[in-house]
Amino acid sequence: MYSVMIVDDEPIIRTGLKKTVDWQQFGFEVVCDCRDGDEALKMLNCHKIDFIVTDIKMHKVSGIDMLEAIREMNLDIPVLLLSGYDDFKYAQDGVRLGAFDYILKPIEQEKLEKVLSKVNDKLSAIEKNTFEFNTNKLISKEKVLYDLVRGKNLMCMDEIISKYELPLIKNKVQVAIVEINEIVINCEELIKNNDLEFLDKSVNNIIEDEMKKCSLSYYSILDGEFGKKIIIAQTELEGNETQFDNIFIEALEAILKTSNEQLKTVLNISIGKVYNQLFSMHKSYLNAKEALKHKYILGTNKLIHFNQISQIRHNKFNYPIEKEKELIASIILVKDDAVDKLKVLLKDISEIMNYDVFKINVTLMQVINNIYSNVLKKYDFIENIYDLTEIMEIGFLGIETLDDIEKRIVKNISELIKIIKEYNLNQSDNVVKKACEYVLNHVEEDITLTLISSKLNISKNYFCSIFKQQTGENFNEFLTKAKMDRAKILLKKHDMKVYEASDVLGYKETTYFSKLFKRYTGLTPAEYKRI
Fold first, then answer.
1. Which of 54, 62, 110, 205 supports an S-S bond with 7, CB 3.0-4.6 Å?
2. pLDDT at 192
């Protein structure tokens, strides 16, 4: 029997794995279980462990950290990673670092049993001294190459190349990154449909085929960060940097074309500069990473060369704080130029952040918060009738280009402006403005024409006349609209029952409230709660 350690910070998972899996059937015995990676590493000093099953996310020491520590201890223990959808990227990184495999939660019995069978085969082969040495060597080569391309172990590069028989020569070198767009933006759907592995392998095969056709006899294809492949290209051919560059570009364009035609899959490919010294390989890789960021401004499904963006990369700007202030003022006053000011500010921020979408995202989140905090200082009662959290959600995950980001943020701010305008909060007429603000501040109370005209010290007839003239709707319509918007908040955000919302808003008959709600929203309150 091979000994098994289970590591998970959830007791129910540890117990479930021990009791629901027939470990003996596959030649295993669970000898211990641990709450986190730290406890597991200590336990390795007390037990001989042949196989580890571990969660990725845990307190103290994570599954990935534990895996790295095990490898540093020179222990060749197969490690199976358990991962949720949110941790999938880390599971992929774990496999690259030497994990045996990964399984997504909730764990499917059939998949787990297949892994157990494979692990048993591997451990049996080791015992008989027939373990596939070449497979291990290939895995080691890929890990070593990945470290070198990222700039690690450069001082002993020659020694490492010789020791691991790496396919590298002391000549010109150039690095490209091939990003599988669908994996980056839609990985959860691919996982659910079991399409991710097929897509990853298919793209890898296309890269291999097209690189074989070109005259670059030395190349390596590595798994990089999530959804990315790294190509290290070299040649023995005599010629200048431009010729080498052109040959590699031609191969990459063929990869892009074939992927589009055969797989109907979008690739984002970036390429670094040619360097004359192999020692500078990591510089070309960093060039390619920098170039790839510019897919957000130059568009996807393209080959982007570092030389295209080198000038943009050196530009420096000061943050346009005055433009942000002008934008906020325009939004509060519902000026026609508000959206144009927003687009100008977005353009400036993009340049400041060197077109790095993640930095742009962080900056824009702060801008959005500044906008909403200032708007709520002026119109704090807006939150009574609209759930601003939905409008404030930027979340650029899955957004592909800067144009997409602009559309999203313009839509959000336009919605905010619409709210201010719809409830007449920008009215110049002081009487109408005070009436609207009173309604929104006291929307759950019993408000009548008599009450509001008394508050404003004017006659009912005059108030009705001026309200209709300024807003285009009568006061009772405005009041009902405000109460129905408040009802949406109570039903959804506060999860009130229909009769509770009806009572809070001052409607004695729930049936009458439901009819008003459907007339205003097109749905009954019950239907609205379900969407």
1. 54
2. 67
Phi (first) and psi of residue 114, to 5 degrees: -65, -40
Q: Which residues pair with 218 in a beta bridge?
A: 234
Beta-carbon contacts of residue 239 (< 8 Å; ≥ 6 apart): none
Domain containing 63 equals 2-131
Flag whether 422 is in a domain: no
DSSP 63-113: HHHHHHHHHHTT----EEEEE-GGGHHHHHHHHHTT-SEEEESSPPHHHHH
CATH code (residue 187)? 3.30.70.270
Distance of CA 394 to the CA centre of its chain: 12
- Cβ atoms of 363 and 356 closer than 8 Å: no
pLDDT at 66: 86
- Phi, psi for residue 145 in degrees, rounded to 5: -60, -40
Q: Would the CA dihedral through 239, 245, 246, 247 be positive or negative?
A: positive
Q: Among 414, 438, 471, give the residue marking a domain's end.
A: 414
Q: How far apart are the first and last CA of the chain?
A: 53
List the beta bridge partners of residue 304: 270
Q: How many domains does the chain have?
A: 4
* The pLDDT value given to residue 12: 72
Helix (H, G, I), strand (E, B) or coil at 407: helix
The answer on 215 and 117 residing in a single domain is no
For residue 339, being part of any structural domain is answered with: yes
d(CA 372, CA 352): 23
Please choose, from the candidates 80, 89, 263, 284, the residue with its C-alpha nearest in 3D space to the C-alpha of residue 173. Answer: 284
pTM greater than 0.90 (yes/no): no
Same domain, 450 and 477: yes
Same domain, 195 and 261: yes
Same-domain status, 327 and 197: no
For the sheet with 51-55, list strands across it: 28-34, 2-7, 51-55, 79-83, 101-104
153: left (phi over 0), alpha (psi -120 to 50) or beta: left
Task: Give the model's pLDDT for residue 397.
Answer: 45
Pairing of strands 79-83, 218-223: unpaired
Neighbours of 112 (CB within 10 A): 19
Residues 113 and 13 in one domain: yes
Q: Of 414, 439, 473, which marks where a domain is finished?
A: 414
Q: Are residues 339 and 273 in the same domain?
A: no
**Run means of pLDDT, 10 residues per run, the chain, 531 residues:** 86 79 87 85 79 83 83 82 68 72 80 88 68 47 84 83 88 94 74 80 94 89 85 84 92 95 92 92 92 76 85 57 88 88 89 74 73 80 74 52 80 85 74 88 89 89 89 89 91 85 90 92 88 78
